[in-house]
Amino acid sequence: xxxxxxxxxxxxxxxxxxxxxxxxxxxxxxxxxxxxxxxxxxxxxxxxxxxxxxxxxxxxxxxxxxxxxxxxxxxxxxxxxxxxxxxxxxxxxxxxxxxxxxxxxxxxxxxxxxxxxxxxxxxxxxxxxxxxxxxxxxxxxxxxxxxxxxxxxxxxxxxxxxxxxxxxxxxxxxxxxxxxxxxxxxxxxxxxxxxxxxxxxxxxxxx
Length: 207
Description:
Layout: H1 5-15, H2 29-47, E1 55-59, E2 61-62, E3 74-77, E4 82-89, E5 95-96, E6 100-102, E7 105-108, E8 114-119, H3 128-147, H4 152-172, H5 183-191, E9 195-197, E10 200-202
Antiparallel strand pairs: 1-8, 2-3, 3-7, 4-5, 4-8, 6-7, 9-10
Helix pairs in contact: 1-3, 2-3, 3-4
């Protein structure tokens, strides 16, 4: 069955020993608490780390604007589904280090700019291990408002930490193992030549 905000909330409510809901607007106290807390808990957990399953790479749109900060020449619009930015790459695949994010815009000196970021996701697209952690985190956050039983929070906190550790381990296994770099490429990297690892070019930096 496809997961929804309500189904995830109901699993969290069950962990608290509380009554389930039919919707966020069914008028119950449980529904009011869940509807208030849900989005912040979900986005906070997505922001927590650079989840592999939620990473997206795409070009960002160049805006016809002139930055007031003269140290930058270009302005790009961030995607609307950004939760957390991991980095930016130029058109050659190199990571850009000279940029500034202000609101929904990024200022740089690159005409072509690509973003790597954690994206907002629909519930049915979330990885199973993340959903388990989200349920545990939501239960922890809503417990006292729902049940008034503070002592239950300790058990819920332990459950969340266990689910979070399991999620991070599973997420780390999403990518294939990286082969040992051939000796020739290792020498090239040491000498300062660009090296390609997993499809990305890395610059050698001194110091």
